[in-house]
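Collaborator request log, item 7. Partner lab (contact: R.S.) asked for a structural prediction of histidine kinase to inform their binding assays.
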Amino acid sequence: MHGLAGSTADLWATIALVLHVSGAIGAATLAAWLKPRFGRLGKAGHATSFALVVTALWSLAEALELRGSTGATVLEAIRNLSWLLVVYRLFADDGRHDSLAPIRPVLFSLVFVELLLLGVDLGVAWISADPGLESLALGLEVMLRLLVTVGALVLVHNLYGGASPDARLALRWPAAALASLWIFELNLYTVAYLSGAWPREIAALRGLATIALVGLLGVGATHGRETLRLRPSRAVTFQTFSLLLIGLYLVAMVVIAQSLAYMGGNFARLIELIFVTVAMAVALLVLPSRRLRSWLKVTVSKHLFQHRYDYREEWLRFTRTIGGVGPEAPPLGERVIQALADVTSSPAGLLLMCDEEDGPALAARWNWASIDGTGNLGSDLAAFLERESFIADLDEMRSGSHVDNDDEREAPALPAWLRDDNRAWALVPLIHYDRLVAVVVLARPLMTRKLDWEDFDLLRVIGQQLASYLAEHASQEALAEAGRFDDFNRRIAFVMHDIKNLASQFSLLARNAELHAEKKAFRDDMIVTLRSSSEKLNALISRLSRYGSGGVDRIEGIRADEVARAVIARFNGNRQVRLTECEPLRAIASRHSLEQVLVHLVQNGLDASGPRSPVFLSVVAEGADARFEVVDSGSGMSPEFIRSRLFKPFVSTKSGGFGIGAFEARELVRAMRGRLDVESREGIGSRFIVRVPLQTGAIGASQTQEVA
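Returned to partner:
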């Protein structure tokens, strides 16, 4: 036992040494730092620096366990007198040392008591070391210390409490520093007075008071100290308050248990055990309660903060909720409800989206299993919410106490399903550009309270933001739907363009049949033309599914020279179309799509040229590409037309044209991983160049051929 007591005493002695040395270092450092900055503490600057030096020396004496020695006693008295001088100089900083008459008498009284203490301590140490006399001296010292400490705290309170609002900005940190020192001293000497002995454990922590004093004074001497405030977050405050309540509960439980134990006897022991069991059971049931947490939040917000909400935390939570993405994220409607419900701790909610005819109707629900009714709000109530931007407290609307007597506004009656469901607590309209987008019905929170101006302001702002999200979402859906219609119209335009070309061929064939039907050569050529038209129609049907996606037929290795000759064959009998150069090449492309592109370009060249102007087609190797070139000497195009109109769909220079031929040709070439370029000059002609990748190099010698 003696060994255990000795080790405990050594531990406390070590703690006291560390804290006192730390306090001495801090006080000396701050005193040196303040030397060129005395003005920051006003008229108390020099006095504060001196008090810090004395405090550092006293802390070193305490660290060396010199308490009770003459030097330590004198240093402690000088320390206390120095800080009383600092208080007086702080009063002098705003002139109140002259205007408040009681200050000087109180200060002189405290100085007298402190000097009396010093005399008693020195006298007892010099006269005798009798234990009875030392005990009497300790009691007298504790009583006088309590008197000095209480008087000093009263001075500090008057120093800060009686200051003007502007002076308080500069006084709050020095006042807090002095209060921390003397509050610790008050507790120390109170325990010593009640116990009749010096509390060594608490006295070992006196260095903490010195460290707090130095820290607060240092803050008070920095720039910007007037605007510096300690602002704990609501989460920290709530957790601290919760721990305080738990601590009070545990203390009360221990006190009651000990009181029962003092009664003595087996019966008291039984009562004590029963009480502890019941108390722990109650704690396990009550502490995890959501209702208790809601009550704590309301109480803390109401009494400890100027505003109920921590707007930064609310906005961050709102952003996290509404911005949830991923496969596991709930739909937008549920996130909208949750974002509003989190503000008021509502456990559930409904989202009613507006319908142009019938008013807001149920569109989504969050933690609300079912409703007893249609879920329609009604057009009259919706119009009122939109017009007034009115956040409705449904309890008031049910009782009829929501009417504003100033403007006599009264909302239309609630629908039956909403009026009869007691879970419904509030209606929040979501308004975007003065138009009602949706309405959120919030369920009653566990800790029901009356909504006030701060609730209305925050709900209204968040509601406007949510309305913008819902409006943007609706716009995106409308845009996607318009895109689908545009894709459909584009498909139809492509189909009509191809059908128009086939119809032209059939019309030409019918006219020629009237003149040459008896000729066998014509009939043979007509069969070929009909077969080709049938193939085109079948290809058109197969391509309907790929229009709008830039798709082409299967890409494979093809003979580029054969494609060029097939295009020339399409215009057989037209002496304007000539094949000028045709190298035997293999290209990577879709034969049908490439042939369609070249036919379109040749036909455009014929349309732009006169009846005697030739249109030339060639195919040669160019690097890693097969280069198809269509050249005409027609009217040509301006650079502005090529840049902004040539490849724009549904823009055409031809009367009755659809304006999609060039656009479709470019998209088909791109789908084959190729490129379509154009060169043109007005009055001279145009050159269209199609490049598609080569499969291999040239497979034969270059050959030039002109087709008549």
